[in-house]
Amino acid sequence: MKKLSAWMEKINIPAWLFMLCAVVFDEFILHIWTPRELVFSRLVTVLVCALFFGIVFALLTTIGSSARLSRILALVFSGIFAFFTLLEFFIQDSFKTFMILSDIFGNAGDVAGGFGDTLVTLILHGFWRIIVVLLPIVLYGFLGHLGKWGRTGSWITRVVLASLLIVSFFGGMLFIRTVSPDTKKYDEEYTFDGAVRSFGLSEALTLDIFRGGNTNTDFVPSEAPTAPTKKTTPATEPTERSDAPTEEATEPTEETVVYGLHEFDIDYAALADEEWNDRIASAHRSQTPASENPYTGMFAGKNLILITAEAFTKEVIDPVRTPTLYRMAHEGIYFTDYYQPAWGGSTSTGEFSNLYGIVPTNSVASIKNMIYNHNDLTIGNQLRAQGYFSVSYHNGEYTYYERHRTHCMIGYDNFYAVGNGLEQGVQSTWPESDQEMIEYTAPQFIDHQPFSVYYMSISGHCAYNYGSNAMSRKNYHVVENEDWSEHVKCYHAANIELENAMTSLLQMLEDAGIADDTVIVISPDHYPYGLEPSYAWSSGENYLDELYGHPVRTCFDRDSTALIIWSGCLEGMNLQVDAPTFSLDILPTLSNLFGVEYDSRMFVGRDVFSDQMPLVLWNDYSWKTEYATYNGATGQFIPAEGYELGEDYRDQIAAIVRNKITFSDVVLECDYYGAVLSHLPGREEQ
């Protein structure tokens, strides 16, 4: 021990140097452990930014004259940074996104709680990572105790560090603005997850503080995209899109039908001129109304059952294993190119996008923010205003994500889940049964027509293994002979429960004679991230590739999924939508089909039967049109096969995407719906 102490006296690592190295080390291993889209230039950018923050904390350790104090400060600061490094790693491991701290500890308290439920698993499987992060701190504290505390930073050290701080700051900014492939992610295309991956955790936390959590702040000039040019080679020309039956869309008619616009009787230009808030004024000018069409009012007066299905994918749909879901998907309105973007907040954000038709710019806090805003335009509120019987159900905990507060705001007179009534009809398992929920609740509304019902399912939830997933065990016999891995079998088995639920539901509707008068809509909340490598879900390999049957490398691969819009009255009509569509299109499409009065300028998505440009977007500024895709994570722009497109098309769509995300932020942060609806004739005094 004396020899070790003597050795330590000779080494005498200054606290400021340890602190600098600790920050750079933590940033380095965080990115090595989360290698998605990690390239050398990004890693260099991360380390350049880490150097700056390492110097900042190194300087802070020299504030006193005591070497002991310097060492204590270094241990405290490095310990805090190590904690956040591990926290963000395990959050990313669980939910495949980095989360801002307010979401982890505040707005997403239930995510943190759910995360806590898997803590033992994470510690057991990821214990070596915890050791790697904490070992340098432990060794520094222990060995420092054995030897001398060393000298505190001299004034020369402080001057040198301050000089390096200035050089690293301007050098880092120059590097980000010139060399980094992610310059736009620093400001106009900022997201917290993207900032962590591109610039490091320290930089992302700082940006989040200065931005106040906002995605972006300003609208930008935009214009209609340049008409795409087809290549001349016939073999590469794409097939023509059909949003509706070809014969109806192309056959000439004797009488021309003039359709009106989906808009309220409000002068948006006048509102913009009078508005003192620049963001609201810009929002007034940013949208254009869509026209009514032959499908307007097709479902007027019919019942609606809207379902957000936990981790549902199109791969579940099979004519043999899931004949009811197959019937609903193919005999209803059939969508061939549908997406549910992974908005970066697990179930809450996917549910929000399905219900509100705007981007959840505040992550998991988005739906909670709307508690204090006007919610008149959700399909639940629109139908309730017409006298519909309305109720909402969830076969999970009733307080999770504060649904007991949010789900009455979105248009349902009552909300029932496990803990406030639904436990009487649903057994306590993990996850709970969708079939039991449907069979218990459907008799409560089936005789109250017209009805508007919302379900948030849970049977498809991870983890996907026989031991811990009750639905996988229940339905395993359906898939046990399939040539799949155990995880993929258990995923399919869990989703068989949704098939069982829909089989029971359709049978009850048909027995009651109202299948033709009832519309069922099913959309997932997110892709099955529980099949990706994760300590939290005991998934050591990437089973998502196996489920999809191809490598999943981009958001377009990952989030391609199914949307079901079915009614008995649709069977035999062969309605098919081939254009790119996504979850934000659900609300305007239903508003059009149910013939309710709405203003299409209030949504980011579009009615899929309208004349508006098909556009799918992600909150990392990726997008897809009929003619091209842009990957915001990699900056890759790819024209569709058969089209020649220049940078002008990319920039035009990028501006539209940015404005739609900004518009969504204005709705959330400025209660934009309230600002507009207060000017609707007859509502000025409300």
Helices and strands, with pairings:
Layout: H1 2-11, H2 15-33, H3 40-60, H4 67-95, H5 101-107, H6 109-117, H7 119-146, H8 155-178, H9 192-199, H10 201-211, E1 229-230, H11 246-250, H12 268-274, H13 278-286, E2 303-309, H14 323-331, E3 333-335, E4 338-339, H15 347-356, H16 366-369, H17 379-384, E5 389-397, H18 403-406, E6 415-418, H19 434-445, E7 451-456, H20 470-474, H21 476-479, H22 486-511, E8 518-524, H23 544-548, H24 555-558, E9 560-561, E10 564-567, E11 576-577, E12 581-582, H25 586-593, E13 616-617, E14 623-624, E15 628-631, E16 636-639, E17 643-644, H26 647-670, H27 672-677
Parallel strand pairs: 2-7, 2-8, 3-11, 4-12, 5-6, 5-7
Antiparallel strand pairs: 1-17, 3-10, 4-9, 8-10, 13-14, 14-15, 15-16
Would you mind describing this structure in some detail?
- With 686 residues, the protein is an alpha/beta fold.
- It has 27 helices and 17 strands.
- The strands form four sheets. The chain has an eight-stranded mixed beta sheet with strand order 6-5-7-2-8-10-3-11, sandwiched between helices.
- β13 and β14 form a beta hairpin.
- α12 runs antiparallel to α13.
- The longest helix has 29 residues.
- It is globular and about 90 Å long.
- The chain starts with a helix and ends in a 9-residue tail after the last helix.
- About 3% of the residues have low confidence.
